[in-house]
Amino acid sequence: MSGLFDPLRVRGLTLRNRIGVAPMCQGTSTDGHVNDWHLVHLGARALGGAALVMFEAAGVTPEGRISTRDAGLWDDAQIEGYARVNRFISAAGAAPAIQLGHAGRKSSFGPIWAAQGMQGLRVATSAEGGWTAAGPSAIPFDTDTAQPRAMNDEEIRAVPAQFARAAQRADAAGFDWIEVHAAHGYLLHSFLSPISNRRTDGWGGSFDNRIHLCLETARAIRAVWPERKPLAFRLSYTDWVEGGWTLEESVELSRRLREEGVDLIDASSGGTTPAATNLARHMTTRALDGQARGHDDGTLRAQIPLGPGYQVPGAEAIRRGADILVAAVGLITEPTQADAIVREGRADMVMLARELLRDPNWPIRAALALGEAARMSIPCQYYLAWSDRGGSRFDPVAPET
Length: 401
Ligand SMILES: Cc1cc2nc3c(=O)[nH]c(=O)nc-3n(C[C@H](O)[C@H](O)[C@H](O)COP(=O)(O)O)c2cc1C
Description:
- By secondary structure, this protein is of the alpha/beta class.
- The protein has helices spanning 36-47, 79-91, 153-172, 187-192, 207-224, 247-259, 285-292, 312-322, 335-343, 354-358, 362-369, 383-386, and strands at residues 8-10, 13-15, 19-21, 52-59, 95-101, 113-114, 117-118, 134-135, 149-150, 177-182, 231-236, 264-268, 325-329, 349-352, 377-379, 393-395.
- It has an eight-stranded parallel beta barrel with strand order 3-4-5-10-11-12-13-14, surrounded by seven helices.
């Protein structure tokens, strides 16, 4: 079995190890354009040794953003901002990736943070650049979220092409890897889940109808995304609540996505209801308040077995049941934990989010801890920091000229 520091080949791409930077919204873009923050933030994580360095959820349309300050890839003018960051990530030996998303009914929020700090998600007014959110049915996420519009057939049919056009821009920007965001209650997941999808036409009801938009989106992207480049999907493998989307359905969807040319499933969970929303990032002001006041009592929470690697069983079930590569994500923080997940064949790679915010050099530290320093490339510029710790191979990262 492979370990954390064995390369992973997916189509024409070889990842230098099995560590990925999970997508993390930065709320730092203007009109969807990424900037110096992204260069430094993601560049540091490429230098720190991650193999896959993923941009946050980028809206495939302006209305596909979660918040008005999110990244986007709906306009050719946005391409160069990403290309600049990608040139740096590639020079550092990592593969640049992007998560393409449409936030659907959970969109049109104002900035997640302001001068006074984190403020939770708050619906933006039109004067603040907000719009009317839309989803499969006119069901709001919670009482703090505006009533979304139910999309009409024409609008739904347009979605796969919106993802495909963003994928073409991603190719032009030098991305090696696309992950489609079909998790956390956003548009594609909201079609999968009977909680948010109550349609009675061909897009709702049966399992086949609910997964149709995901399959069409995968097909549309594959038609334009180069054959040699990997395509991944992030799924919430369960809604964690009665009557919601299930692990069994995720396994079957993953199998069908594989048939459409999807290479890997990034297995996350939750996000369809406020009862099963794990992260402050996805919480509305009310939920954040409740958590701060200690109302973590089941009115806001489903029974989620939160703990180290708590989503690994979902990844493993999909890997076995759908015969597809998977990434495990969620509360993975320790080198031996991450190595065991890969070595025991539970997942093909791990994605880390908060731990890589705490320490962009986590992969280098993990390599030293696991006795794998010889396989970790550490930039020449940082030689003095690691040479006495056992790091043995030093590749220069040349600046752009
Ligand atoms: C600041 C922040 C922003 C996030 N933004 C996204 C996002 O854009 N897309 C997504 O699918 N998940 C997002 N997530 C979830 C992470 O990708 C990850 O699944 C989650 O944090 C669990 O992993 P961790 O325990 O390693 O942090 C975000 C998480 C954080 C902390």
